[in-house]
Amino acid sequence: MTSSILNVEKLQTAFKTDKGEVISVEEVTFQLKPGETIGIVGESGCGKSVTSLSIMRLLGKAGYIKKGSISLNGKDLTTLTEPEMRQIRGNEISMIFQEPMTSLNPVFTIGNQMIELITLHLKYTKKKAKQYAIEMLASVGIPRPEAIVDEYPHALSGGMRQRVMIAMALSCQPKLLIADEPTTALDVTIQAQILELMKNLREKSNTAIMMITHDLGVIAEMADKVMVMYAGQVVEEADVFTLFDEPKHPYTKGLIDSIPHLEYDDHKRLYSIPGSVPTLQNMPQGCRFHTRCPYVTERCLNEKPSLLAVDKDQEHKVRCWLYEQEHMNVETKYRKEVNV
User: Among 291, 323, 292, 293, which Cα is nearest to 305's?
Assistant: First the structure.
């Protein structure tokens, strides 16, 4: 059995604000094996990006990991010093950020920034590093890479800058690739090319991928398992086939039902989840989804549901009071089988 490369256990991430401490991510637990892809989905403000930034230890001055552990190949990243984390970032873990202009330095050329990364981690000479940088730019579909390598970020379009970020992230063939909305600014042709690159990296280098996106189509194509987040919590977790075929949580069902399909009637309205994600300062009591849930009960208003398995293999988990009895039935059946 292959051991996990990444283990996140009961991660709780907090931020200091003028109004006090707020919890952005609460009790997030998951594992990722080499060559495996996990998709993380949910609306904006659900804690997807904060989870990835916690792993990278890039939360800024206001953010900090309050509880839990993040283990990469048995090494607890929460205990490392900043110089030790700098050796891991870009080498063992790479991240494709959602907004490239916040990650690319505007006063250095694309080539300078790529060469610095490549020489630091791969120990190439500057001449070899520049040639490798040009090859990586070409591999992500950038035209005239020999000229682009000498351009500054402001001279490129948003899509081109995103492809530069992807080229940088893939340069060192990381053990873990975190992709935060990697194809948002790209047209469908380039998007398909980038996804194919990521698949090749996964197969060639056995890289584990953590894919954060709003696009459930990308998740269906890329992910082995899916984690659905809402208001800083994991509300459902399952393999990709189970999640799309048998979604349990009302929020997951709402996300899937809001996907447009070709066979829809022209006059049929596309489903939308009512309301919006609550703010961190005004988190509802009980189940955090109860303000938007069509199946809300009195218990949902006051009691917090736990993330419980609803299958014997303990792989399909859901945080919803509707499935408490189903969980108990699974537990009882499992105990009987073990005793037999």
Answer: 323
Residue 326's alpha-carbon distances to 248, 302, 308, 321, in angstroms, are 11, 21, 10, 10
Largest CA distance in the chain: 70
Residue showing tokens 């950038």: 142
Residue 70 φ/ψ, nearest 5 degrees: -130, 110
Judge contact between 51 and 229, C-beta under 8 A.
Answer: yes
Tokens of 226: 């899916």
Q: Looking at the chain, list the stretches that DSSP marks H as alpha helix, in order from N- to C-terminal side.
A: 48-56, 82-88, 110-122, 126-139, 145-148, 158-171, 188-205, 216-222, 240-245, 250-257, 298-302, 324-339
DSSP state of 154: G
Confidence of residue 333 (pLDDT cuts 50, 70, 90): low
> Could you tell me the strand order of the sheet in which 6-17 lies?
20-32, 6-17, 63-72, 75-76
First to last CA, the chain: 25
Query: Which whole-number Å values give the CA distances from 168 to 94, 152, 164, 331, in the listed order?
Result: 8, 15, 6, 46
Amino acid 2: pLDDT: 60
CA–CA gap between residue 84 and residue 59 (Å, rounded): 16
Going 160 to 225 to 14 to 303, the CA torsion angle's sign is: positive
For residue 40, give the H/E element and its range.
strand 37-41
pLDDT at 1: 46
Query: Of all residues in the chain, what percent are helix, strand and coil, respectively (each to 5)?
Result: 40, 20, 40
SS3 labels along 81-109: CHHHHHHHECCCEEEECCCHHHCCCCCCC
Question: Cα separation of 159 and 187, whole Å?
Answer: 8
Q: Would you say the pTM of this structure is higher than 0.70?
A: yes
